[in-house]
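dumping this here so i dont lose it
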């Protein structure tokens, strides 16, 4: 991140989305090996032979145990790992001059917004987000469409950091050539 900073720019906060998205993958990560171990023990003790007398013998036991292990690995690698990587791939960075949001690992997508362009910072929370102190932060730049940062943890604090960073921006004078919205007296605008 330091390589991408502008001269005089400092990182204030780096965060990810709220971790509640990992609730079901974490539960599956814990329960899947436990259920697979229980099923394997049941198979080794002869449980399938009691249900279906055709399944007697050690050759069935080996294949059933391998099937249980394969299903457990499939759930862990097919559900838990992608959800974790999806959560890990979203990052919000607030610097002293801009807000950067990065999405994705292999196919990276990001957007950057200058703090000087932000006109309004809104916070919207559902009941669950409010209890977990997360929320959706909307940044209004005066352009249609606005920008939304979904599921920011400690959303009220993050919003306050944004507002403090906006207040900490150096003031732009009216006569500054970089100020495109300078107010001029007279008739027509200069081109």
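and the seq i came up w/
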């Amino acid at each position: 991140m330091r390589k991408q900073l502008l001269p005089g720019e400092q990182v204030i906060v780096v965060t990810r989305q709220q971790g509640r998205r990992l609730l079901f993958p974490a539960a599956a990560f814990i329960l899947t090996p436990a259920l697979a171990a229980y099923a394997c023990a049941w198979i080794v003790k002869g449980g399938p032979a009691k249900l279906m007398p055709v399944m007697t013998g050690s050759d069935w036991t080996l294949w059933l145990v391998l099937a249980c292990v394969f299903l457990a690995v499939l759930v862990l690698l097919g559900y838990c790992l992608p959800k974790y990587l999806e959560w890990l791939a979203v990052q919000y960075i607030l610097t002293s001059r801009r807000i950067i949001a990065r999405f994705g690992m292999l196919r990276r997508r990001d957007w950057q917004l200058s703090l000087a362009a932000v006109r309004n910072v809104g916070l919207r929370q559902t009941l669950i987000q409010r209890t977990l102190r997360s929320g959706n932060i909307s940044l209004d730049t005066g352009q249609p469409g606005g920008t939304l940062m979904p599921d920011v943890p400690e959303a009220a604090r993050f919003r306050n950091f944004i507002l403090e960073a906006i207040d900490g921006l150096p003031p732009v004078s009216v006569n500054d050539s970089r100020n495109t919205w300078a107010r001029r007296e007279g008739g027509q605008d200069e081109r």
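Helices lie at 23-44, 47-51, 58-88, 127-131, 155-167.
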